[in-house]
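Progress note, sequence design subtask.
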C-alpha cells in the first residue's frame, strides 16, 4: 500500500509513505536527520514506562511532593479516590444503548488513578487492583468496535496500564493484556484505517479520540508488534491533522466547550505519548491555532463558574489537565494558573503535568472573538462579580450543534441569569438522526434566540460575526442570523430578508440585546430566554430574582410590547427542566423593518447608563451611550 499526505505543519510538509506497513517519514524544511530515514519506531524508548509519564517524570514529581503543598493535596485526594475503588466491582461488559463507553471510561479512569498511586507509593495493592480491571476488560468478548470510541478508550486504558505497570505484571498477565490490546483494539482499528471509515476523515472529536487511543495502544506494544504499530502510527499521524485544523485560527472548538475538553484531552494524550515514547510529535503540536486552545477554555468560563455550554454540553466546568501540558508546551503560564487556581483540577495527569507558574489574568482582554468558530465572549472585567455574555454565531451543521445561532448566556453578580439547557439523553430515538431537531433542548424552541412562526432555524445555516468591539467600558458584537431563517423564506417566496442580532455589555451595569428584522412579513416573532431565576412580570419589565440578588429586563423598543412566561418542559421522555422559566416576547411582523431592543440591568442599585439605540450597521465603532 502506498499513500502520500501533505499537511502544512509549522511551515513544513510532512510526507508519509507506507510500503507493506513500513513507514518512512520525511520532513521538508529542515535538515534531514538520521532517524528520518528509518521507521518512526527507530527512536522508540525501549524501557517502560514510556507513555506520557517516564521515570524522569516520576522522579521529578516525587521530589516536588516534598516541596509543594498544593501538589501533595492533589496526591492525597488521588490516594483517597484510589482507596474507594477497592470497595467497588470491576468493570463489566454492559451496553447502554449502543455504547460500552461508560465502562471504557471507568476502566480508563481507574487504571490512571491506581497506577499513579502505585508509581508514587510503590504499594503493590494499587497495582494489583489496576491489573484486576485490565484482566477483566481483556476478557470481554469485544470492546464494542461498532461504536469505536468505546474501543479507542479501552485500548487507551490497557495501554497505560500495560506500560505503567509493566514491571509488576507477570508473563501471563502481560500476554493477556497485550493480546487484548492487539486483537480487540489495534486489529479493529487496522480494519477501519484500511476501509477509510468516516472517523478517519472527520474534522471533529471522534478523530482525535480514535486516533489517540490507537496511537497509545500501538506505542505500548511496539516492541512486540512493530509492523502493526508502524501501520497504526502512520495512519493516525495522517488522519489527525484534519481535526487539528479546527483549532485555527484562535483555538476555539466549534463543538462546544464540553467537546473541546474531550477532543483536546485526546489530542494531548496522543502528542504527549508520541513525544515521550519517540522523542517527537512529528510537528503535530505546531498545527495553527493549537497553541491558543487554552484561550478558548479560559474565555468560555463565566464568573459564575459555569461554561458557555453551547452544543451538546454541560455548563459544569470539568477538570482539564491538558491545560498544564499546553502551558508548558507553549509557554502560556495563564493556562496553568487558570486550571490550578480557578478550576482546581485534581486528576492523575494534574499530578504528572503539574505546573506552578503564575499569571495575571487582568492582562488578558476581557472580550474575545474566536474567529472561524464565530463564538464571542464579552465581559466587563475578570473579577468574580463581572458581567459576562457568551454569544453564539458559527454553523448549525457542526457536529453536536443545536439550532442555536444567536443564542447567549448571561452572568452577573456571580450568578447565571440566562442559561443554556444543554444536551438531552443521547439514547433518545434518532438523537443523532432524523428526530434530532424535534427535541426541545436541540431545536430552536429551547434556545435563547429568535423563533419565527414556531419553526426551527435552518440546520445548514451559518451566522458570521460582522462586528466586534472591545474597550475598557463597552464591548459588543453583531451576528448576521439571516441564513438561519432562510428555510421559511424560500417557502414563502420572499426574495430579500435580513435578521441581525447585536449584544453590547456596558461595564457591570447593563447588557443590551438588539435585534433587527427586515422581511418575514406576517410571521410571528418570538424573542425568548431561559432562566432559573424567579420571574415577576410588570408589562415591559421583568424582575429576575435569585437568592437576594436581582436583574431587571426591560423592553426598550417597541415600548408597547410585553413580557410573558412560558413552560420550558417538553413532553417526556425528554429531559425536564424543573425550576426553569422561559421568558418571552411575542409580536407579529409587518412589512416595515422591525427593531426589538431588550436591556438587562445587571446592577439595579447602580446608576443606569443612558442607552440610545443606533442601527446595528453602526455598531462597528462604538455603541452610543448618550455621553
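Output:
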Amino acid at each position: 500500500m502506498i499513500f502520500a499526505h501533505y499537511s502544512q505543519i509549522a511551515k513544513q510538509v510532512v510526507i508519509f509513505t507506507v510500503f507493506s506497513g513500513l513507514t518512512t517519514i520525511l520532513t521538508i524544511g529542515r535538515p534531514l536527520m538520521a532517524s528520518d530515514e528509518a521507521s518512526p519506531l527507530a527512536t522508540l524508548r525501549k524501557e517502560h514506562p514510556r507513555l506520557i509519564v517516564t521515570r524522569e517524570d516520576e522522579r521529578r514529581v516525587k521530589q516536588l511532593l516534598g516541596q509543594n503543598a498544593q501538589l501533595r493535596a492533589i496526591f492525597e485526594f488521588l490516594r483517597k479516590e484510589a482507596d474507594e475503588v477497592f470497595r467497588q466491582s470491576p468493570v463489566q461488559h454492559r451496553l447502554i444503548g449502543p455504547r460500552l463507553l461508560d465502562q471504557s471510561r471507568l476502566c480508563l479512569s481507574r487504571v490512571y488513578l491506581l497506577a499513579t498511586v502505585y508509581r508514587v507509593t510503590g504499594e503493590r495493592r494499587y497495582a494489583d487492583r489496576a491489573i484486576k480491571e485490565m484482566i477483566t476488560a481483556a476478557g470481554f468478548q469485544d470492546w464494542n468496535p461498532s461504536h469505536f470510541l468505546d474501543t479507542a478508550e479501552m485500548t487507551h486504558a490497557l495501554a497505560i496500564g500495560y506500560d505503567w505497570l509493566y514491571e509488576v505484571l507477570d508473563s501471563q498477565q502481560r500476554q493477556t493484556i497485550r493480546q487484548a490490546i492487539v486483537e480487540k483494539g489495534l486489529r479493529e482499528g487496522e480494519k477501519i484505517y484500511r476501509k477509510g471509515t468516516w472517523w478517519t476523515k472527520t474534522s471533529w472529536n471522534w478523530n482525535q479520540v480514535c486516533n489517540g487511543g490507537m496511537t497509545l495502544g500501538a506505542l505500548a506494544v511496539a516492541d512486540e508488534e512493530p509492523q502493526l504499530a508502524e501501520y497504526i502510527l502512520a495512519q493516525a499521524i495522517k488522519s489527525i491533522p484534519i481535526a487539528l485544523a479546527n483549532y485555527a485560527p484562535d483555538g476555539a472548538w466549534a463543538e462546544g466547550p464540553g467537546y473541546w475538553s474531550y477532543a483536546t484531552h485526546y489530542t494531548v494524550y496522543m502528542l504527549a505519548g508520541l513525544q515521550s515514547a519517540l522523542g517527537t510529535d512529528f510537528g503535530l503540536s505546531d498545527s495553527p491555532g493549537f497553541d491558543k486552545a487554552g484561550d478558548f477554555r479560559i474565555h468560555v468560563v463565566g464568573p459564575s463558574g459555569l461554561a458557555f455550554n453551547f452544543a451538546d454540553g454541560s455548563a459544569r466546568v470539568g477538570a482539564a489537565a491538558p491545560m498544564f501540558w499546553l502551558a508548558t508546551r507553549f509557554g502560556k503560564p495563564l493556562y496553568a494558573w487558570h486550571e490550578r487556581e480557578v478550576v482546581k483540577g485534581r486528576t492523575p495527569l494534574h499530578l504528572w503535568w503539574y505546573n506552578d507558574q503564575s499569571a495575571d489574568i487582568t492582562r488578558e482582554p476581557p472580550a474575545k472573538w474566536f474567529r472561524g468558530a464565530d463564538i464571542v465572549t464579552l465581559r466587563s472585567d475578570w473579577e468574580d462579580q463581572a458581567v459576562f455574555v457568551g454569544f453564539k454565531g458559527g454553523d448549525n451543521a457542526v457536529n453536536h450543534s443545536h439550532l442555536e445561532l444567536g443564542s447567549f448566556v448571561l452572568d452577573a453578580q456571580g450568578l447565571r441569569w440566562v442559561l443554556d439547557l444543554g444536551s438531552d439523553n443521547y439514547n433518545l430515538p434518532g438523537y443523532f438522526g432524523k428526530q434530532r431537531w424535534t427535541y426541545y433542548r436541540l431545536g430552536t424552541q429551547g434556545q435563547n434566540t429568535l423563533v419565527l412562526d414556531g419553526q426551527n432555524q435552518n440546520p445548514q445555516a451559518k451566522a458570521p460575526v460582522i462586528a466586534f468591539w472591545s474597550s475598557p467600558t463597552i464591548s459588543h458584537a453583531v451576528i448576521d442570523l439571516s441564513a438561519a431563517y432562510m428555510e421559511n423564506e424560500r417557502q414563502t417566496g420572499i426574495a430579500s430578508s435580513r435578521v441581525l442580532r447585536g449584544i453590547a455589555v456596558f461595564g457591570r451595569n447593563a447588557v443590551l440585546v438588539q435585534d433587527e428584522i427586515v422581511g418575514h412579513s406576517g410571521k410571528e416573532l418570538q424573542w425568548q430566554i431561559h432562566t432559573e431565576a424567579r420571574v415577576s412580570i410588570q408589562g415591559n419589565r421583568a424582575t429576575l430574582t435569585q437568592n437576594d440578588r436581582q436583574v431587571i429586563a426591560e423592553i426598550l423598543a417597541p415600548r408597547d410590547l410585553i413580557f410573558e412566561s412560558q413552560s420550558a418542559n417538553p413532553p417526556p421522555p425528554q429531559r425536564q427542566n424543573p425550576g426553569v422559566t422561559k421568558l418571552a416576547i411575542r409580536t407579529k411582523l409587518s412589512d416595515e423593518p422591525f427593531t426589538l431592543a431588550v436591556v438587562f440591568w445587571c446592577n439595579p442599585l447602580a446608576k443606569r447608563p443612558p442607552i440610545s439605540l443606533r442601527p446595528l450597521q453602526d455598531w462597528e465603532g462604538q455603541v452610543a451611550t448618550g455621553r
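The first helix runs from residue 55 to 65. Work on this subtask will continue into the next period as scheduled.
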